[in-house]
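We emphasize that the prediction below concerns an isolated chain of 642 residues; any contacts that depend on oligomerization or on bound cofactors are therefore not represented. The input was used exactly as deposited, without trimming of termini.
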Amino acid sequence: MYGMLLESVQHFIQLEYGEETWLAILESVGYRNTVFRTHHIYPDELIMKLADAAVTLVANGSTRQDFLRFFGRCFVRYFSHYGYEKFIKVCGRYFCDFLTGIDNIHLQMRYMYPKMVSPSMYISHEDADGVLLHYRTTRNGFCPYLIGQLHQIANDFYGIPLTVEELPNTPFSQEESYQFCFRLNFDNRDYMAGRAACNGSLELGRINISNRGSVKTIASEKALSSLSSSILMQLFPFTLVFRPNLEIISAGRQLKNMFPGDMLIGQPLPDVARIRRPKLLFTWDNLYSLQKVLCEMEILPASQIERKNTRHLAPERADAVAHRGAKEESRRLLLQGQLRYLSDWDAMIFLCNPLINNLEDMDGMGLTINDLSLHGHGRDMVMAGWQHNSRLEDLYERAEERSQQLQQTYELQDEWKKRGDKLLYSMIPQSVADSLRSGTDPVNTCQGTRILCAFESITVLFVELANIDEITATSPMEAVSCMNSVFSCFDNIIDQHSVYKVETVGKVYMVVGGAPETNETHVRDVALVALSFRDEIEKIVNSSEMSVHIRIGFHTGSAVAGVVGRKMPRYCFFGDTINTAARMQTTSLPGKIHISHNSFCRLQKLDGFVCELRGTVLVKGKGEMNTHWLLRYELPSIEEPK
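Result of the prediction step, given as a token string:
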């Protein structure tokens, strides 16, 4: 389908449900930040996916069918942006006129949308209360979309209420198409009255002609003599006339030139042509019902028609036909026009002209300009199309190029936004960052209290590069390289555990467990991180010439956290727990993990952690404290059943 249909959906979802809802729908169907282009082709199932996504995200109780009907109404409301509402207004005085000419509208639109795969519709019954509309399409599931369009057109352009009832489907032989029949109920009395008056005028004219020269003749109407069939065939050089048994009895002058020797006369119409639009079976009843519909037929190449009769020809003649057929196989004549039943002849006449878009089409059909009738528009369309084609193609290509550039800009913008988000989330927790992005004041970003977020229990770890000052004194670049290697190693480790990296200040690295996302395993998580830090540094020292030592310490307790400052805001922790954890690190020893008594008591409730009493340590600002060393973690053994 063309992008214009999707543009209409986008416009009215944004208008009625908001920009955020539309962006969420696009992301749900995998078209995030997509700019739909009017003349670009999109998959048919995309509109179904949009309807399903709208059901979930709008969540107003509407079903997929409801949203498809809404999309259909949106399209009718939207195409006025392109001036198409003027086209609809001149399609007929009555709604029934519009329904009769829907196929004609689609055929005229093919010049602007050459890749359009339009459905086929025709009316099989008319009465004062409505019509029976037959709908054939290659797409399944679009009936609600069509119904929405019909409702909106009936209301906006004809001011009448409309109800639609789907009738049981009738068999259709073409498996690639779907057929539906609808009963459209609306006030159709004015149309029926106008048709009855027209039929009465025609009958009166017939009476006047048959009685010319008598007193019943109306002076203002002059009877004309009958028109011979030969003149009619010259006026319409591509005409076909056939009987109810579909046998061709006459053909236009140009068709006789293209198919010499009266090749068409006496042939069954299905052997000579196939109906391209509307897609119907080749039966007399079907063709009789199409007298108000613009039809398209494809005349088969002369060689293909001859080939069906080669069994009656001499072998040399049959070979010549086959050889010529290989050259003419691509030459297929497309005719467009109207079917009319002539009761005097008891035959159907197809008044038509070739369907030609450009000079290439004409050459492919084996026609010249002089073959086209002067009263038709074929000559003008071919020449005008040839003159304006290059300009239109240039404008189209420029528009497509601008659309592609806009699409690429949106994709680039989305990529940079992802990079910015990744950088931001590495500095501030995602929940806090999203709150800040929405305009919330930094001090109001946390839960718990209005100013700061209180955590009843977290575990805070500090790790320090003990001898980095010595390295800096001798080689500052080596010190920077060393810190980068160590801290990058630490970053990889914490990604494997449920902990949060708060910051690095100089040679100190700070980690918190249990915040900003609270959990009950924060002591275990931080203890495992500390052991991993120590073990990985030992591996680095043993496998390289880098000589670095670390001191680790952690403590468990309560704290508060929040974003402070307006420039370069940081998510910071405050409280005695942070001070105590820092003292555990500063009073630790290189290669050791120093833990407070609170952390030790919690680890004792867990299996596998091996600790050792360090004893009483004088801690600045705290006095004497009983502390412990964390030695290792041993997987609990599983006792085998006796």
